[in-house]
Design goal:
Elements (H helix, E strand, L loop, with lengths): L19 E12 L6 E12 L3 E5 L6 H8 L7 E6 L2 E2 L5 H11 E5 L10 H11 L6 H11 L14 H14 L4 E5 L7 H18 L3 E4 L3 H4 L4 E6 L2 E7 L3 H17 L1
Parallel strand pairs: 3-8, 3-9, 6-7, 7-8
Antiparallel strand pairs: 1-2, 1-4, 4-5, 9-10
Length: 263
Amino acid sequence: MTTDPFAPHPTHAPYPAAGTAAATTSLTKVYGSGDTRVTALDAVTVAFREAEFTAIMGPSGCGKSTLLHCAAGLDTPTAGSVRIGTTELGTLGDRQLTRLRRDRVGFVFQAFNLLPTLSALENITLPLSLAGRKPDPAWLDRVIAMVGLGGRLDHRPAELSGGQQQRVAVARALAAKPAIVFGDEPTGNLDSRSGAEVLGFLRESVRELGQTVVMVTHDPVAAGYADRVLFLADGRLVDEMAHPTPDRVLDVMRTFDTRARTS
């Protein structure tokens, strides 16, 4: 294990990672029963610090997407607890949980999930509109400028490239000033150049806006944009790395391949 996994990155001086945006305690998720029982998460305890970019990696089927979905309140754990800030998700009813996800959590997925009949700007502000809230004009302008969409706001998704559509999705996730943004393979449908742009925007949201980002990825290059990487195997947190580089991440991932071949 890294001796100080929460050490702030030097570029984060304006927003030191002092608080906890979200955390899990002994988080367990089991699917099925009997012969079909699968333990996707096995007592995972982890904290996601404010103003920090965390990547979650591991071999296929290790539980990384399940961890993200449970931490984001999209899935219900079998045992253990999840909290966003100081709010324990297990104490919330369905309506309260829906409101929390809408108001305090941002999402960026592999599929862009944009409404085709709405403009880019309307897609960005849709969650706020559904909540009956008006965007903070200064914040919205800052987010739109960061993702470089100023000249495309009146375009519908079909008129945008894949990279531009994912920029809209990133801006939508940030528009409500969420406590934390979760990304599940957010560059999985993009070419390398567009993917690098989106990852750069996520990193800039941490550096410039003080955002907290948690991203599942299979790509060591993508993980290299993060401040730290969590490694899962067989539903357990087995390692973590501060200040990752693609080469260092790849070296760890190779150990999983070696274990799989020798087991």
